[in-house]
Amino acid sequence: MRTRTLALAVPVLLALAESAAAQQDAPTTAPPSAQSAEPATLPAVTVTAPAGGPQPAISPDVEKFALPQTIESIDQRKIADTINIVDSEDALKYMPSLFVRKRNYGDTQPTFSTRTWGINSSARNLVYVDDIPISALIANNNTNGAPRWGMVSPEEIKGVDMLYGPFAAAYPGNSMGGVLMITTRMPETFEATAKQTGAFQTFDMYKTNGTFGTSNSAATVGGKLDRFSFFLAGDRLDSNSQPLAFVTNGTTPGTTGTIPQLTKNGLVANVVGAGGLLHSTMNNLKAKVALDVTDWLRATYMVGYWTNNTQSSVQTYLTDGAGNQTFGGVSSFASNTYNLQEQHLMNALSLKTDTKGAWDFEAIATWYSYMQDIQRNPAGVLSGANFTTNGLIARLDGTGWSTQDLKGIWRPFGPGGAHEVSFGAHHDRYTLNNPTYNTPNWITSSDSGNGTLFKITTAGAYTVLSNFDTTHGAGAYATPLQHTNGKIFGLSARGGASGKGVAYSLDNGIAPFVALTTTVGLAGKSVGIIGGGFTGTTSVKFNGASANFTVVSDTYLTAKVPAGETGIVSVTTPSRILLSSKIYRVTPKIMSLTPISGKVGSSVVIAGSGLIHAATITVGGVKVTAFTVNSDKQVTFTVPTGAKTGKVVLTTAGGKATSSAVFTVTP
Fold first, then answer.
1. C-alpha to C-alpha distances, 520 to 615, 635, 655, nearest whole angstrom
2. What is the CATH architecture of 60-184?
3. Pick from 487, 490, 486: which is nearest to 452 by CA?
4. How far apart are CA 87 and CA 56, in angstroms?
5. Which residues have CB under 8 Å from 31's CB, separation 6+?
């Protein structure tokens, strides 16, 4: 409309200019008297303008289901006339009461906020492309919780509807902030388009200055052949961004180039460099086909494929004494450096009726998959402007979601009647798979990392024992085992000369030990002991108590458990004393009670085995306060005050023993 208005204005301005010129060239005559002047008749001027009122909704669902929210819409024509659209989220730029946190072209983290929920609450708004939710409800933040805007290119957008909250029952509860509905085109006649867009920005802050450019190439083709419709779209975006962050440090790292700064709270935040300088290349391929099965039933299938390759680099402002660039030991330079590879796939299948009668139904199934999503970054910085070779690999492969919707409308008074009832059912399933791997080489290591052998204490202390490399194996896939010589053995899935894995060992200086074939049993039981160098063994002890033993071979011997000794087993060989990796627990056993009845204060004798370290005794659940350990086979106790008739239970470090007989407490 602006073009037409300007076109209409030009002739009017020219006519006025010609009239003025004619008056200047005409001979001068005396002005006629006021009484003889006649009114002049001017030509008619026609003014046209768009019809008043809000933009009609784009999505057919708005009218079909009579959605009750406040709605604001923008169509393809208005987007083209008023917005320099490069990314799909640019379509929201001038919609009321919305804010899109877009930091750069190709941003993968542009959340949007409404008046009810802010940009850090990404899961409080829903974004749909046709029937497919692209809201990443795997998180509620302003990073990986952002909608997957890259799945729709600007050229395929027919229009956008914003349904402001609170939510309606037609959508899941996450729509409490609002529902954004992006409708894509489906041409009725053959069409083909091609578009090239360029954008650039200049940037100058601190010591970073330059021009950052973006290019976008897009093409579409579509049409309708009888009952079959199709639309294909391709889009490629290549962008360079300004710094998304500045690297700061609470101190001056002993170099030159630091820019003294304070936070808004007055804390030291000296600027030492710029981070998040992104170079992103994104590709989007989309296919949408529809078949009018009957005059009232349409089947639609849509598939989208999106790739992203992003490198994030840094710029240091620091130099050393020789004038060379340096990171000054500031680790934030490493966290702002990464590369990201993503491949996402989405699918949707729908069956929708348009009977123009009393009933209509819809069945919709969607699936969104993170086929590949891998980010690599170094673990830290070294001297100069160098990063550590080791780093981290974070993956989101396997993340995704699926949804199923069944909807219906009943119009008891027919189409356009006074009342109608809409109803439906919704199911969704979101899966988050986000492992992070240590890797010895953050650039070249396998996508799953090469793997790490580590130990962790019961207190949670974590220590890396060794990082795998491809030469000595990669990707440990079985639980490692420790040999009694102290070495760790295991298998890897990859690496080695053939690349098909290795059997590895790790000597981490752990001392040799002995392993017990069983760690619990009665006194006098024979126990197998595994180790090495047993030839010439001079003693075997259980918690310091000597045991009878027999050397079967240099790596195996047997020993009889001595009376009641729970504890570490030691084997003295000609070369060293070997200790067991686990405690042997001698279990107590009660064989008899004498007598089996008595009053409070009377003495009772327990006969059995493994009784030497008796810790507690109870009679009918009442604790005995006085007892004497006579030997490993006998304990004498006094029936306590309050004792109840019941079984006697004796506890040692090796376990509990319960009498088979019931002790009767007499008056």
1. 18, 22, 9
2. Beta Complex (2.170)
3. 490
4. 23
5. none
Whole-angstrom Cα distance, residue 468 to residue 452? Answer: 6
- Cis omega (within 30 of 0) on the bond before 43? no
| Tens of pLDDT, residues 210-262 | 999 999 999 999 999 999 999 999 999 999 999 999 999 988 777 889 999 98
Give the whole-angstrom CA distance, residue 667 versus residue 663: 13
DSSP code, position 90: G
Q: Which CATH number fits domain 515-586: 2.60.40.10, 3.90.1010.10, 3.40.50.170, 3.40.50.9100?
A: 2.60.40.10
Q: Would you list the domain boundaries of the chain?
A: 60-184, 196-438, 450-506, 515-586, 589-665
Least-confidence region, from 226-240, 313-327, 468-482, 511-525: 468-482
| Rounded distance between C-alpha atoms, residue 591 and residue 604, angstroms | 13
CA–CA dist 614, 629 (Å, integer): 7
The CATH architecture one would assign to domain 589-665 is: Sandwich (2.60)
Token pair for 241: 């961004």
Closest alpha carbon to 258 in 320, 318, 325: 318
Rounded Cα distance between 236 and 573, Å, is: 73
Q: Which helix H or strand E contains 6, and what residues bound it? A: helix 2-25
* Residues contacting residue 247 through CB under 8 Å, at least 6 positions apart: 271, 272, 273, 274, 275, 314, 316, 330, 332, 333, 336
